[in-house]
């Protein structure tokens, strides 16, 4: 049995989306059990709307929600919040594989560092979300916000961890890894990018294909983009924003006149398919690679399907032995320097 904790607060549609997503995920895996943290009365009220295997869901009372105004390192220490309670369960209970949360990214990051800890030889854990690509497979961005400042060794480890994640969780064969840069030429970029390029080029356990310009992110030509957390976060949010605005523009176009509305009726199926394809909430969350136990950050405006996908991600990571694979891979490439 694989046990995962779900923080039931912190999202725009919490706790309804969290609970519904948890029940949906439970129906997909017979060997999955869940621990839901949050206001026990509210969660049980939400659960009463569904039919599910009650033996596989446990509710742990944690009535408070972490505020985005509170400093993350302080917020995660409040034992009465749903996220802090989830972190504590993950830290103390050996049979718990990890957690899924829609809450504060800063608090989740602080908790992962302070309570969960790093795998052996990992310099810094990194967020790795998946975005849709034109070939339908998806592309990972590692790091997307956990480490604003990086060394070349960090980027090398992000490439190794991200490759293992795509192989084990999504079945990618020899994922194509690229370094985010201002040009595709080998001699482009600042010192960090130049030194990282040399390291990645000489790391045999990854399929490094060179530099990538941000405009090629969704083409399907690459499987994993490696970058510092600052650049990765800008890349991620710029892409998400562009996709959302494109959807708004399409909606305005199709509703701007009677003729367009009639045309939209004939194209309704295709329009909905495109909308689902471009909606990043349908692709799970940003997993944190390199922590001792699995941590998945779900988007704050995630719906039930998003939560279910995130739980599915965590389940597959644990079932596939991702952390063991990362530790084994990093043994061959011990860091040249210690974390700062």
What does this structure look like?
By secondary structure, the protein is of the alpha/beta class. It is built from twelve helices and twelve strands. The protein has helices at about 15-25, 40-45, 70-75, 80-90, 105-115, 150-170, 190-200, 230-255, 260-265, 270-280, 305-320, 320-330, and strands at about 1-5, 30-40, 55-60, 95-100, 125-130, 130, 140, 175-180, 205-210, 225, 285-290, 295. The longest helix has 26 residues, at about 230-255. About 45% of the residues are buried. The mean pLDDT is about 90.
Produce the secondary structure layout.
Blueprint: E1 2-7, H1 16-26, E2 32-38, H2 40-47, E3 57-61, H3 72-75, H4 82-92, E4 96-101, H5 105-116, E5 126-128, E6 130-131, E7 139-142, H6 152-170, E8 176-180, H7 191-201, E9 207-212, E10 224-226, H8 229-254, H9 258-266, H10 268-278, E11 286-289, E12 294-297, H11 304-319, H12 322-331
Provide key terms for this protein.
Isopropylmalate Dehydrogenase; 2 domains; alpha/beta; 7-stranded mixed sheet; 44% helix; 340 residues
């Amino acid at each position: 049995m694989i046990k995962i904790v779900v923080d039931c607060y912190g999202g725009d549609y919490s706790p309804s989306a969290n609970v519904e997503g948890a029940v949906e995920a439970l129906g997909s895996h017979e060997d999955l059990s869940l621990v839901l943290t949050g206001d026990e009365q509210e969660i049980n009220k939400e659960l009463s709307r569904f039919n599910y295997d009650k033996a596989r869901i446990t509710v742990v009372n944690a009535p408070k929600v972490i505020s985005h105004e509170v400093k993350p390192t302080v917020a995660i220490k409040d034992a009465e919040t749903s996220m802090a309670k989830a972190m504590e369960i993950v830290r103390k209970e050996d049979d718990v594989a990890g957690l899924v949360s829609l809450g504060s990214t800063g608090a989740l990051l602080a908790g992962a560092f302070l309570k969960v800890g790093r795998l052996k030889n990992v310099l810094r854990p990194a967020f790795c979300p998946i975005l849709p690509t034109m070939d339908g497979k998806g592309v990972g961005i590692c790091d997307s916000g956990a480490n604003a400042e990086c060394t070349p060794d960090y980027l090398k480890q992000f490439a190794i961890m991200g490759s293992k994640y795509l192989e084990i969780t999504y079945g990618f064969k020899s994922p194509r890894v690229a370094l985010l840069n201002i040009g595709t030429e080998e001699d482009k970029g600042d010192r960090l990018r130049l030194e990282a390029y040399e390291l990645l080029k000489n790391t045999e356990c990854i399929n490094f294909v060179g530099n990538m310009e941000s405009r090629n992110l969704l083409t399907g030509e690459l499987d994993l983009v490696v970058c510092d957390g600052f650049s990765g976060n800008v890349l991620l949010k710029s892409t998400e924003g562009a996709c959302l605005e494109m959807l708004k523009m399409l909606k305005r176009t199709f509703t701007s006149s009677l003729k367009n509305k009639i045309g939209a009726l004939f194209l309704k199926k295709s329009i909905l398919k495109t909308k689902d394809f471009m909606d990043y909430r349908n692709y799970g969350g940003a997993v944190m690679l390199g922590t001792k136990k699995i941590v998945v950050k779900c988007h704050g405006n995630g719906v039930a399907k998003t939560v279910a996908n995130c739980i599915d991600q965590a389940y597959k990571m644990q079932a596939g032995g991702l952390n063991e694979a990362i530790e084994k891979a990093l043994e061959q490439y011990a860091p040249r320097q210690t974390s700062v």
